[in-house]
Amino acid sequence: MPTMQVRGVDIVYEILGDRGSWVTITPGGRRGMAGEVALGTMIAEAGFRVLLHDRRNTGAAGIAIAGESESRQQAEDLLALMQGLRIGPAFVAGSSSGARMSLLLARHHPEAVKALMLWRITGGPYAAKRLAWNYYEQYLEAVAAGGMQAVCETEHFSAMIAANPANRDTLMHMGAETFAAGMQSWLDSFRQGADHPVAGLSPTELRQMQMPAICIPGNDRIHPAAGAQAAHRLMPFSIYREVLTQPVDVDADLAGWAARTGALAAHFIDFLRACDRAL
Predict the structure, then answer these.
(1) Per residue, what are the HEC states of 111-142?
(2) Which distant-in-sequence residues (6+ apart) come within 8 Å of 55 by Cβ?
(3) Do 16 and 52 contact (CB within 8 A), yes or no?
(4) pLDDT computed for residue 67 by the predictor
(5) Contacts of range 133-138, beta carbons closer than 8 Å, 24 or more positions apart
(6) Short-list 18, 15, 9, CA closest to 80
(7) CA 89, CA 36: separation in Å to the nearest integer?
(8) CA distance 267 to 212
């Protein structure tokens, strides 16, 4: 798998397709790109070039616990990766944390984004509390209890070390104090935007978005339909489509969405073709 050093971090990426407009796809959580290969393949088969990548702190990429906001750092990484690969403005797709990252890229670098394709948008008080724990608080507890060895033994970071053994050295050399300070900064930043209808961006910021967008709601506790509905209401040039409409009482319905990848791809392909005709 090709790797590029981006802003001091090794980023692993893959390109699907060899013709057509560029599409970037970013999964949710701290999941690597492998979870969206099926979606990317379907979009590539429809005549588009798809860029997938492991964001910093995901998959086999490098680890960097720095900067005010993890999602903002990842957005800047994607921009630099696109520039390094000579990819011009692209259709930018993201799910959950990937949607948040995509929105931040569009907010700060609108020239890089032709349109946004967003699904499983995060919102609501349950998500705000649960994700603060998932992303940050559990690691602050781990480092306080057992230092960097305990961090390396957590489920997420042990998987990153298995995928890229150099990540263990990165974490151990970073040290507990630096790691904890970085995680605390990210937690503080996350909390500042977590109570918005769309986590991470204010209603004013969403109203200022001038590019086309498609918003597809989630169906679980962390991704209630209200998040995508709010994004659609606020973003002036968005459309709203549905894939899974029955709410389920789980944090993240990953199995349900995997089973409906074809339907999701069909909505996105229709949107991409319509945008290509209009642009």
Answers:
(1) HHEEEEEEECCCCCHHHHHHHHHHHHHHHHHH
(2) 11, 26, 30, 61, 74, 77, 78, 101
(3) yes
(4) 87
(5) 134/29, 135/30, 135/70, 135/186, 135/187, 135/190, 136/183, 136/184, 136/186, 136/187, 136/190, 137/187
(6) 9
(7) 21
(8) 14
Contact (CB, 8 A) for 229 and 133: no
What pLDDT shows up at residue 198? Answer: 95
* The residue count for the chain: 279
Q: What is the DSSP pairing of strand 9-16 with strand 3-6?
A: antiparallel
Question: What pLDDT shows up at residue 172?
Answer: 98
Per residue in 38-56, pLDDT tens? 999 999 999 999 999 999 9
pLDDT tier at 231 (50, 70, 90 boundaries)? very high
Taking all residues of the chain, what is their mean pLDDT, rounded to a whole number?
97
Q: Judge contact between 158 and 150, C-beta under 8 A.
A: no
**Architecture per CATH, 3-126+198-278:** 3-Layer(aba) Sandwich (3.40)
- Return the exposure string of 262-276: e unless at least 16 CB atoms fall within 10 Å of the residue's CB, then b: eebbebbbebbeebe
Of 63, 52, 62, 187, the residue nearest 128 (C-alpha):
187
Q: How far apart are CA 94 and CA 34, in angstroms?
A: 14
CB 167 within 8 A of CB 157: yes
SS (H, E, C) 40-99: HHHHHHCCCEEEEECCCCCCCCCCCCCCCCHHHHHHHHHHHHHHHCCCCCEEEEEECHHH
Residue 279 has pLDDT above 80, yes or no: no
Quote the CA–CA distance of 16 and 24 in Å, as a whole number: 10
- Residue spans of the domains in the chain: they are 3-126+198-278, 129-190
Are 50 and 43 contacting, i.e. CB atoms less than 8 angstroms apart?
A: yes
